[in-house]
Write a structure and sequence with these properties.
alpha+beta; globular
Length: 350
């Protein structure tokens, strides 16, 4: 079953208006269409003005073309990345890189400049236990980035502000402990995702080559088969309009998260990968209970509420700053160039 609604947005108010015959507005400036529904997953598309410049390569594309190297450093939480080509490369927070001594999820959204030289990039392990080559893989580097974290909880564990344990449990309250807390939460979440998916598809999704690898679980044939009906029903909806710059999705009637890109071209490059992650999360959370999809007004309210959160800014490198806005029920991340112009926006429900 699919349904479609339409809302026009502008920078008029942080709240939305829900009156008969009156269009709704929010601070976001995006026009929202949807919901487009299959089973327990509902999608909404964000339409808006888009950059007209060149569309960067994605990390997935660049690795496939040999334009980027992602190398192992033997530090669980830091890798190196290098753009060898002449085009910018977009890396999205949550991209999973496969290989090395352990599969990793990258923490930040960045644009790699052409001929960048080696740059450090933060990561979390999503394959607890392995610290050696897997099969014929080269443990010194990562060869693909075809999946994204399929878990809102994992994204929160990776990036949202955390309350650290008191002194005496994990030592002092500084950087190393925060990384430890986040990494332990990631491992726990990977195991939870694997358990849920195994239950929903009726067979273990853990791979014999490495039972703790989230990436290998996402490649499971039964899971791929379960995803196919969702993808068939929903993928084309994101490909019809040339002004779509982002999406939001809801699972079991609750708004989950969303991503926005500077251009329709970059959205379309990321769409299949992000849809797969959204579908995988929906499969893991499927409970057989039919719940109505949120209205588009609720999606606008979610976006606006996240953007009103308490703001803080962190410099990732000389080319990217990340602003975090922490609201009571949601959190918003915006990676942007210091000179202006955003690279990626991510909205997460808490």
């Amino acid at each position: 079953m699919r349904s479609r609604s339409f809302l026009s947005c502008a920078v008029l108010s942080l709240s939305f208006i829900a009156l008969s015959g009156v269009k709704a507005y929010a601070s976001t400036g995006y026009r929202v269409t949807g919901p487009f529904v299959h089973d327990n997953l509902a999608l909404y598309f964000l339409h808006g003005e888009a950059d007209k410049g060149p569309v960067p390569l994605t990390l997935e594309e660049a690795l496939m073309k040999g334009r980027v190297r992602v190398d192992e450093t033997s530090n669980v939480n830091q890798l190196t990345i290098e753009n060898l080509g002449d085009e910018e490369v977009f890396v999205q927070a949550g991209d999973i890189v496969k290989g090395g001594k352990q599969d990793r999820a990258l923490i930040v959204s960045i644009l790699l400049p052409p001929k960048s030289g080696k740059m450090p990039i933060s990561a979390f392990c999503v394959e607890q236990g392995r610290w050696r080559p897997r099969g014929l893989e080269d443990a010194s580097k990562f060869t693909s980035a075809g999946a994204s974290l399929p878990s809102r909880e994992a994204k929160l564990a990776m990036r949202a502000p955390v309350t650290l344990p008191t002194e005496g449990r994990l030592g002092n309250r500084h950087g190393g402990d925060e990384t430890m807390v986040r990494q332990q939460a990631m491992w726990a979440n990977v195991a939870k995702v694997q358990d849920k998916l195994s239950t929903r598809v009726g067979a273990p999704v853990a791979a014999t080559e490495s039972s703790s690898s989230l990436q290998l679980s996402l490649e499971n044939e039964k899971l791929a088969s379960a995803r196919s009906a969702y993808v068939k029903a929903l993928k084309s909806e994101g490909e019809k309009d040339n002004d779509v710059v982002g999406y939001v999705f809801a699972v079991n009637g609750k708004v989950n998260s969303g991503d926005v890109y500077p251009s329709n071209g970059l959205f379309k490059k990321m769409w299949a990968k992000q849809l797969n992650a959204s579908v995988t999360e929906a499969i893991g959370e499927r409970d057989g209970v039919s719940v109505a999809a949120p209205k588009a007004e609720e999606v606008l309210a979610f976006l606006a509420e996240a953007e009103k959160g308490k703001a803080s800014v962190q410099q990732v490198n000389e080319r990217i700053n990340v602003e975090t806005r922490d609201a009571p029920a949601s959190i918003y991340f915006e990676a942007a160039r210091p000179s202006g112009g955003f690279v990626h926006k991510n909205y997460l429900s808490k």
